[in-house]
Amino acid sequence: xxxxxxxxxxxxxxxxxxxxxxxxxxxxxxxxxxxxxxxxxxxxxxxxxxxxxxxxxxxxxxxxxxxxxxxxxxxxxxxxxxxxxxxxxxxxxxxxxxxxxxxxxxxxxxxxxxxxxxxxxxxxxxxxxxxxxxxxxxxxxxxxxxxx
Length: 148
What we know:
Blueprint: E1 4-8, H1 13-29, E2 32-39, H2 59-82, E3 87-93, H3 96-106, E4 111-115, H4 129-137, E5 141-145
Parallel strand pairs: 1-2, 1-4, 2-3, 4-5
Helix pairs in contact: 3-4
């Protein structure tokens, strides 16, 4: 039924539950799993004593956000590998919903799995509006994992 599954994660508890469900489904279906996480450069969020910058964020802060995403992806991929699921990871700069939608289209996904809510604040961008956007624009079926 499903041969290619995309799951979005931001490292939150909700996203971890979505990854767990995606791993279980991929294992059951013999599907490949593509795990996606988005990062954004956050302008103006550098050290307080740093001089103000116009529109370019300090590369040190962009890298830190990307490194956080890489750790999140590595942890999720390990869960899939331990279950014997073929997995790939994809870190994308920009909007979380767009990142997930792009990977779903590029990979010819049959299913996108996401949690119903994510972390709040500037650190992560997988929020309640992401499942809404994905449900409207996904090129395939969407499963939204309900969590507490």
